[in-house]
Write a structure and sequence with these properties.
CATH class: Mainly Beta
Distance between the termini: 42 Å
Largest sheet: 16 strands, antiparallel, barrel
Number of strands: 17
CATH topology: Porin
Helix content: under 10%
Radius of gyration: 22 Å
Structural class: mainly beta
CATH architecture: Beta Barrel
Number of helices: 3
Strand content: over 45%
């Protein structure tokens, strides 16, 4: 079965690589244009959480290399409209694993349409598309840093609007189709921001996760988060130094319909202070409030744990939580991004552990839906 999947995607990519030879050599408005992209990502995350075991997290290392070749067909019938169809594959090899079985992780197939108006840009995406197309801010109460790496693609639709001072996006990610063992799962995500001044921004992030039952384990769990926030920025005239403070509330709606008569609404507040000087940045994040993962240790009607199947955010949002991180991100080149960092984690019980991270991104081409020209 795996070999068949490999052959299918390899053949499709080869055909798409040959077909552009029949297209126009000099692309222009109203003509078909082909673009290629070979994305590479190196990811290292060593987590030393012995201080929290067995309470919250276990120590471990995620160490992987990811290759994402894609090919795109672009058609721009006018200055205001652009269509892009992208196909590719995601391959990941975990360091230290002797076999290359399971290297193929995901097929990539999506349509990206852009329409420019007098007030801004509208963009619609449908298919299996990269998470990187989502550009708004999401707290790690929504998606942890490890979840963002492991779940790199969404399956569904993405709608975006970008004006001069207002940006917003809404996405649907279909995570599971109902069967005897598999649950019907989907997530609706929305975020946006409005910047009335260069030093002030107001925004939000919200999601609703529908975790339904399978034939084996009937039942439904609802899980939603809402994060309204305010951001204050102070930037020096040289732009080498910046200081930002983000303040917001995190509200939650959670209901295991089989086990509870009504929903629970835990919540709290979050503050993030970021100091950046050239390629160095220091970030401190503090959460004060209730346990945002009250069902984490629960099980469904068949005895399967909820855990990370229900929650995608960081495990430490169970009460008071403070995270401090130091990062170095030198300017290497337009298509190369390198980041080195260290983060320490604290809860009301004290020090929980720390992690060391390193990542390298390289994009050879521009096949991820470039802007209108």
């Amino acid at each position: 079965m795996k070999k068949g999947i490999y052959r299918c995607w390899a053949t499709a990519l080869l055909l798409l690589a040959i077909l552009p030879g029949q297209a126009q050599e000099r692309p222009g408005r109203g003509r078909m244009e082909w673009r290629y992209d070979i994305g590479f990502r190196y990811y290292f995350d060593n987590r030393e959480f012995d201080a929290s075991e067995p309470y919250l997290l276990k120590s471990g290392t995620t160490h992987a290399a990811v290759l994402t070749p894609t090919v795109s067909a672009l058609w721009q019938p006018s200055r205001r409209v652009k269509h892009t169809l992208t196909m590719g594959a995601d391959f990941q090899h975990d360091m230290g694993v002797a076999t290359w079985d399971g290297t193929f992780r995901e097929g990539i197939l999506y349509y990206d349409g852009q329409v420019r108006t007098r007030k801004g840009m509208f963009e619609g995406v449908a298919g299996i598309y990269p998470r990187a197309l989502m550009r708004e801010f999401y707290s790690e109460a929504f998606f942890s840093d490890l979840n963002r790496f492991q779940d790199r693609y969404f399956e569904g639709v993405l709608l975006k609007w970008a004006g001069r001072r207002f940006h917003t996006e809404m996405a649907l990610d279909w995570l599971g189709k109902k069967s005897y063992e598999s649950k019907e799962r989907f997530q609706i995500i929305s975020a946006g921001s409005w910047a009335p001044a260069n030093w002030l921004a107001l925004g939000w992030a919200a999601d609703y996760f529908h975790y339904a039952g399978s034939w084996e384990a009937p039942g439904v769990v609802d899980h939603g988060l809402l994060h309204p926030w305010l951001k204050l920025g102070l930037v020096s005239p040289s732009s080498d130094l910046s200081l930002n403070l983000r303040l917001g509330a995190i509200l939650s709606y959670q209901w295991d319909r089989r086990r509870a008569d009504k929903a629970s609404t835990p919540g709290g507040g979050e503050a993030t202070l970021t100091l950046r000087f050239r390629s160095l940045s220091l970030e401190n994040n503090s959460y004060f409030g209730d346990d945002l993962l009250p069902l984490y240790d629960g099980v469904d009607t068949a005895g399967h744990p909820y855990a990370d199947n229900l929650y995608f955010g960081h495990r430490f949002y169970t009460g008071f939580y403070d995270r401090i991180g130091l990062f170095w991100e030198p300017r290497i080149g337009k298509r190369v991004r390198f980041r080195l960092g260290a983060r320490a984690h604290f809860t009301s019980t004290g020090y929980m552990g720390w992690q060391q991270t390193a990542s390298l991104r390289f994009d050879f081409g521009e096949a991820k839906g470039g802007k209108l020209r």
